[in-house]
Amino acid sequence: MRKNNRIVFFTFFLVLVGLLWVTILLNVNDLLISFGIVLISGLFFIVRFEKKKIEARELVLLAVLAAIAAVGRIPFASIPSVQPTTFVIMMSGFVFGAESGFMIGAVAALASNMILGQGPWTPWQMVAWGLVGLTSGLFNKSWIMSSKWGRIAFGIVWGFVFGWIMNIWSLFAFIQDGINIHTIVAYAAGSALFDFMHSISNVIFLLLFAESWIKILNRFKSKYGLLITR
Hints:
Blueprint: H1 3-25, H2 31-51, H3 56-71, H4 85-96, H5 98-116, H6 122-138, H7 143-146, H8 148-174, H9 181-224
Helix pairs in contact: 1-2, 2-5, 2-6, 3-4, 3-5, 4-5, 4-6, 4-9, 5-6, 6-8, 8-9
């Protein structure tokens, strides 16, 4: 990704984190504010993606990857937090770039919830999985994603970060007396086991399938000239 795009993305993240932090400090427990932040973040990347020149075959590939990521949740629905969705999104962002990774993650969350159940948590899942694809694309040229152990560390971190993002939604949705450090710690502790299971499942899928997925996706990319920066 170009340097100016990195600056835009990181500036946006700082603004997003700042809005969340101010909301918590002011004890504003308004679900509309949290949804506004999430929807603005999604709109930002969708607009940027729409401005790119993209061919129909590229859209088909993104749709197929999003469908694979979405369907991957269903067989594992009975095992809390264990699924290959994060892995598929991570590999997609790594090979095809940050913006494509974000779109695949967002669409995968929306599509899978059509079967598993839509709700006020869906926008947060869209952003959380979108950020998995985004960050894997941002770091695709660094040692973090270029090395085996870097990818494993990345998967472990995102297993917990994903859970913490969903904790933010839970705090806004269910805490009526204001958010403080005690409620944040309590939610983090309560989700720790599920976040750990998410991290472990990421590690397992990365160890078993990462190399083969990268080769296959790179072959599609080079053979058909897909998603090449113009």
